[in-house]
Amino acid sequence: MAGFAGKMLEVNLTTGAVKKFNVPQEVLRKFIGGSGLGAKLFFDSVSPDVDPLSGDNTLFFTTGPLTGTNIPGGARSSACFKSPLTNIWGESNCGGNFGPELRYAGYDVITIKGASSKPVYLLIDNDRVEIKDAADLWGKDTYETVDILKQTIGGTRKAAVLAIGQAGENLVKYAAIVNDKYAKFGRCGGGAVMGSKKLKAIAVRGTGKLEMAEPAEFQKRRKEIADKSKEHIATQFMKDHGTNGGMMVLAATGDLPGKNWSLGENTEVASKVNGVTVTENFLVSPHSCYGCPNGCKRMVKVKEGPYKVDDSPGPEYETAASFGTLLMVDDLPGVIKANELCNRYGLDTITCGSTIAFAMDCFENGIISSKDTDGIDLKWGNIKAVLELVGKIARREGLGNTLAEGSRKAAQKIGKNAADYAVEVKGLEVPMHDPRAGHGLGLAYATSTRGACHMSNLNTSIEMNTVVAPEIGLTGTYEGMKSEGKGEMTMISENLAAVCNSAILCNIAVIPWAIQDIVDMLRLTSGFDYDIKEMMECGERIWLLKRGLNNLMGVKSSDDKLPKRILTPTKEGAAAGSVPDIELMLKEYYGLRGLDAKGRPLKAKLNSVGLADLAARL
Hints:
Layout: E1 7-12, E2 18-22, H1 25-31, H2 34-45, E3 59-62, E4 77-82, E5 89-94, H3 98-104, E6 109-113, E7 120-125, E8 128-133, H4 142-153, E9 160-163, H5 166-169, E10 177-179, E11 183-185, H6 190-196, E12 199-205, H7 215-231, H8 233-241, H9 247-253, H10 267-273, H11 275-281, E13 283-287, E14 297-302, E15 309-313, H12 317-325, H13 332-345, H14 349-364, H15 383-395, H16 399-403, H17 407-414, E16 424-425, E17 428-429, H18 439-447, H19 459-463, H20 486-503, H21 515-526, H22 532-552, H23 582-593, H24 603-608, H25 612-617
Parallel strand pairs: 1-6, 7-12
Antiparallel strand pairs: 1-2, 3-4, 3-6, 4-5, 7-8, 9-10, 9-12, 10-11, 13-14, 14-15, 16-17
Helix pairs in contact: 2-20, 2-22, 7-21, 12-13, 12-14, 13-15, 18-20, 20-22, 20-23
């Protein structure tokens, strides 16, 4: 089947059974792949009431028609599951080598059901699929696990390896799944789902080739898009300095959070932990996801001092902000070390840094004391304390056991007014872009289907007018610190992002693309004769399906809200005094989305996009 391997691999860890079967073309056309396909498969086969850490919670690894095609940003794959952190729909996507390798092995999807009684790993070597003993790997960090498996499997073509660390084994609710050290399925706690199944790792090696519907035309358009990407200023800057290269720009525009979102001016700390400073002092080399020419990842080295790090993946922007400005840490080697520890333990750096920031706020405000922290001095900027706490979280020791639940549940356990300092939406900590500088982003955080998320929309780029697409209604005339008109903008943005996360494309790499480029790539790979209208309808269908899944899991309109800190204006910085008018935006958004007063999609809306089965269940 052009554009798809056409096969799904189902592995039951309870029984040891392995099955292979086809994904219907109609499903692929309507849901594309990636998280869209994952949502459809989840809806069809998993109860929304499932316990996230039980064997009944199915874990889906999905690719898309553009995965492994060597286009810029086309190395990505998705992990989909019910989240143990939020107890609602969970998804995460990442680049690296895993997605392409899975497709070369002949599979679009891996479905992991059940749970093993002992540690195992899954080996996929083209048609050979085996569940293998992992007793010797249990307890090891992700870097050790990846190295051992690559050496064990051997051969001239190295396998791509997903692994969990001690955080996943200990069921830390925001444990990540690490992909060959350089990338992560970071958000929502997929690592804890793997840990609950006693699945330490998945190793994939494939030697097949992808079949294109129109290979010659695809290669022609691929070159045009690659040339366009190379010429774009954002791509050039990220190649030079990584995703963290623009931190000073974000600080100047009020987009960079500081001191657990209470400080609006962060240039002093930002000047010491930004990507340019990394390049000047610690960069070994750029690094790329499979087949991508952009090279926005960093390989770094700290040669000496207490935070020595050998050649290792460096912190992305989100990590540098969550362990830097959010904690008021200006020690870059310490931030690099925190990133390495999170990678090795297998922790989502956004939730981890944010939850530590929450704890520091509680400490400063007398809600917890040194007695509660086992003597750790949780003062702002104390990188030594931060690194100690990262280890305690991964091992679930002392205060780390409470913080391993995430900031919402930690606040509930701590009590008093601790919830005032938890900056999360639907249980997922807010990523490192401030809605007080871009009000539409605030609406997107409130309505995102996995909780606060900047990847389920393109609002950050749209409100900066670096993504302009009048053919779908994105006019390029937006002012960040205004709330009017952001309902329509956000709805279109979410639909477009749903397509990107299903195709599956990197939301950063896609910035230079035109909408027609995305349509053409989908058409030329899959053979489905998409046009812009149908592609955007796919995005709407996918978003509504995820929203409906969340409604079945208990999400209501009252959950579409922003935390207290985001609704409190800062006194300094470019966004001083600015607060998103969330009620105004939600009113506009609900009407356009076709949501009722309870936050559920209207029956007529669902029927119009081909989701009558969801309408019946709702």
